[in-house]
Amino acid sequence: MISKKKALLISIVLVVLTALTTSTVTLALGDKVMIARDTYEQYKKYNKLIALESLIKEDYYKKPKDEKLVEGAMKGLFAGTEDRYSTYYTKSEMDRLIEENKGSYVGVGMYIGSTEEGELTVIPMDGSPAKKSGIKEGDILVKVSGKLVSAKNSDEAVSLIKGKEGTTVDLVVKRDGKERKINIERKEIVEHTIESKVVGDNLGYIKIKQFIDTTYDDFEKDLKKLKEKNIKGLVIDVRSNPGGNLAIVSEVADSLIGEGTIVYTKDNKGNTEYLKSDKRKLDLPIVVLTNGESASASEILTAAIIDNKAGISVGTKTFGKGLVQSVKTLKDGSGYKLTTAQYFTPNGEYINEKGIKPTIEEKDEKKQLDVAIKWIQEEISK
């Protein structure tokens, strides 16, 4: 007869063998834990990463911060997709992205870029506190509130510039080799992505700089004003427009092309989603101005207008971005942007890395508007 102690041991061995062969059992043995094989294999692939973390902590010349190492690992995970549009955002980076998409924030109203040398350059927005205080395009941002800034800590520079409305921030900028200290009052900045005017023989012109949360409402307001002036045609300028929100560009297209397909997407499972427009139509000749920096949402609008025979395009071939990104915010405020689908034009063209060829090619940007006006006038006279 088998003793109780031996029977228990046999039972434990059978359970362990089952765990190693089926992937369904987890068992605690003292201070050790037996886990399912597939779970073990999932964690095993990160052994090297954990080992490298230990080496850094052991040999790095100063004590690294755990959160920075983890943050770098998460950024590297997204970099591993080899997709330039997919990335992990820290909380501060995510906050900045959300603000940019909303089109409003409290600050001084200037765009910040970087040079090859790692310096920060600024471009003030028209009518902004930065512009009124004397900031000029091309100024080098040296300090913010006494803190030296560069491309390495650009996020910190941006966060220091922002603050409560009515408070001030001290900036040091360099121009022509000389440093200037400028004190600027923070105000709510509302970014307008739409500019409009009447051109040619009573034709409307609308420039769309980007597709953010405020774009559609501004577009509708300006289009209404132009229609009240009895325009006979419309030029939509998306040259150098990098794209933006898919839902916003769909709304813009929906107000122009009439009943039809705006765009459709396919995910990695083959699921297809169609974005449709209703019967509303501008019912005027439309020309879209494009160039090599017209990307993503700009290309969606261009293709929707052309494929639904609502108008044509003039200029040069577009950038060629046929990928859709989903943006998610995580519980701790961080987040990510991940390419989750491909998009296709209404006629079924996949334009990624190919772009959209213009209906009428005109390489000289100074002549493109004139070519558009001429085409619309010919359409009107038919």
Structure in words:
The structure is a single chain. The protein is of the alpha+beta class. It is built from 11 helices and 21 strands. It has helices spanning 4-22, 37-44, 47-59, 66-79, 91-102, 129-132, 154-161, 215-228, 246-254, 297-307, 365-381; strands at 27-29, 32-34, 87-89, 104-107, 110-114, 120-124, 140-144, 147-148, 168-175, 178-185, 187-190, 194-199, 203-208, 234-237, 260-267, 272-277, 286-290, 311-315, 323-329, 335-344, 360-361. Strands 5, 6, 7, 8, 9 and 10 form a 6-stranded antiparallel beta sheet that branches. The chain has a 6-stranded mixed beta sheet with strand order 12-13-14-17-18-21, sandwiched between helices. Strands 3, 15, 16, 19 and 20 form a 5-stranded antiparallel beta sheet that branches. Helix 8 (215-228) packs parallel to helix 9 (246-254). It is globular and about 85 Å long. The protein starts with a helix and ends with a helix. Residues 1-25 have low confidence and may be disordered.
